[in-house]
Amino acid sequence: MDLKAKINLDKLPSHVAVIMDGNGRWAKNHGKPRVFGHRNGVTSVREVTEAAAEIGIEYLTLYAFSTENWNRPKLEVNALMRLLVETIHKEIHTLNKNNIRLNAIGDISKLPEKTRKALVDGIHNTRHNDRMTLVLALNYSAKWEIIKAVKDIATRVGNGDLDPEAIDEDLFSDALSTKGIPNPELLIRTSGESRLSNFLLWQAAYTELYFTPVFWPDFRKGHFYQALIDFQERERRFGKISEQLIKS
Ligand code: IPE
Ligand code: IPE
Ligand code: MG
User: Fold this and answer.
1) Which residues pair with 208 in a beta bridge?
2) Residue 138 DSSP SS3
3) 11-20 pLDDT, tens per residue?
4) Rounded CA separation 171/57 (Å)
5) What ranges in the chain are assigned the alpha helix state H?
6) Options 2, 8, 10, 21, the catalytic residue
7) What is the CA(120)–ligand 1 centre distance, in A?
8) In what order do the strands lie in the sheet with 15-19?
9) With a 6 A CB cut-off, is 28 part of the ligand 1 pocket?
10) For domain 4-232, which architecture applies?
11) Which has the minimum average pLDDT: 14-23, 135-144, 235-244?
12) Which of ligand 2's atoms lies nearest the C-alpha of 21?
């Protein structure tokens, strides 16, 4: 039986987040510079975006560039920023054809102007699409996002606009850049690393984590389906015991 047929469409996660990792090592294994890995990673982005939209995922968040990634060699950072511009320009047509909306989380004001503009234009040009939202995490840091939320909330309290007693999980969630987006039920990380690397720390509090040794440029639809199947085989207890759960 093929993998896709094994997926229960009534039990899909509404939001899947992916830490796309392993481009550099993949390139090294092919005797090529790291940038070659990033370029090939674009094919995986296309595949996973298409697979997710086809099957009925509502939100797909891809970690494309972390705040810490600025510390990489300048040549690599510049190449990544250029690749982003190129990819957004190339893919907008397909996103529109597939009715996919583009969005972004992270401090995009700090991106090079060309990259920021490509992104803002892409978001604008796909704003009416409603089949799936593709969220790119760019210059993203979960700690940055949490600090920013705390500052915003503190300012409102300071101005007398907010009673500290009114601060709850919902209010805090709404102060994050993922406002309006459900928490990811499944988070996939490729390349064999088992860490979050400053990604969605608040939002992933109860997320199912899936780690695969596959390097990102090799990740295909089948790997994505496998992650969904694995997710569906798990029991999400949220602190309860198995017998308390309503089995469907
Ligand atoms: C992920 O691949 C892409 C980005 C972080 C932009 P890496 O570039 O981290 O590849 P490895 O982990 O060095 O193999
Ligand atoms: C995480 O990957 C960031 C992205 C995938 C964009 P890294 O390769 O930067 O993470 P670390 O450094 O191994 O934790
Ligand atoms: Mg890496």
Assistant:
1) 186
2) strand
3) 999 999 999 9
4) 25
5) 23-29, 34-55, 74-97, 113-125, 142-158, 169-174, 221-232
6) 21
7) 24
8) 100-105, 132-140, 59-66, 15-19, 186-189, 208-211
9) no
10) 3-Layer(aba) Sandwich (3.40)
11) 235-244
12) 5
The CA 68 to ligand 2 mean position distance, Å, reads 8
Pairing of strands 186-189, 100-105: unpaired
- Structural domain spans, the chain: 4-232
Distance 123 CA to ligand 2 centre (A): 24
Distances (CA, A) of 161 to 146, 149, 152, 154, 164: 20, 15, 11, 10, 10
Query: Residue 42 above 90 pLDDT?
Result: yes
Distance CA 93, CA 84 (A): 15
Q: Is the CB of 140 under 6 A from ligand 2?
A: no
Ligand nearest to the CA of 67: 2
Q: What are phi and psi of 134, to 5 degrees?
A: -100, 115
Model pLDDT for residues 175-221, shown as the tens digit of each residue: 999 999 999 999 999 999 999 999 999 999 999 999 999 999 999 99
